[in-house]
Amino acid sequence: MDNKVTAPTSEPSELNIGEDLKALVASGYDKVAAQYLVWAGPRPTTTRSTFIEKLSSNLSPGARILELGCGAGVPSTQDLVRRGFSVTGVDISSAQITLAHEHVLPLAGKGQHVEFLVGDMAAMEFDVGSFAAVLAFYALFHLPMDEQPVMLEKMVSWIKPGGYLLANLHAEEGDVHRPEWIGGVPMFSSGLGVEGIRKVLNDLVLEGKLEVLEDIVDHEKVGSFEEPFHWVYARKPCAINSQLS
User: Fold this and answer.
1) Does the pTM of the predicted model rise above 0.85?
2) How far is CA 75 from CA 81, 106, 108, 196, in A?
């Protein structure tokens, strides 16, 4: 039997379906969670690794990190836990969270807090200023476009003064529906485009809520084509510079 996992190869099409988009995303990842892990786990994502290294150098051991759209936790959540951070992972797919328990929890050290929550990131509630960093890798673009600016503002509110935001988003503008993604399931994503996200960030900067440290577009090999991602690394202003716990 051929166990090879086929990467997503279908070209995106304009979204024209009446389904609940978040239910579509959750159902899609539930159905292909194991296949997605086989494909995505070993896929080189050097930009993400580089940013995690930068972030880690500014955080104290045991610092609380929130990772939205954590999936199965491979490799980013694993990396964060191995570095000694306390991590809360959130994903809309219960199947992905089941895999995260399997692949991440055994790595936690004695007294190290690691937990996973199933749910829509946009509906989550956390105390203001409760995390040293809030991260979202390959996840925010699964939200409808009108929810992405609100989500970014919520993420900033959950960060401690002096804490960090690290995320990537679609670099291109528009809603996209892939009728046949991994395993043949449909999948939805969307983007405000680079300039759209920069406007959101600029508004947060003007309000004194954020300092953008890096803002880049990087191309990654995804299946049979290259896809641009917009990476944002930012800091919540703080009068005192210190490592965060």
Assistant:
1) yes
2) 10, 14, 14, 29
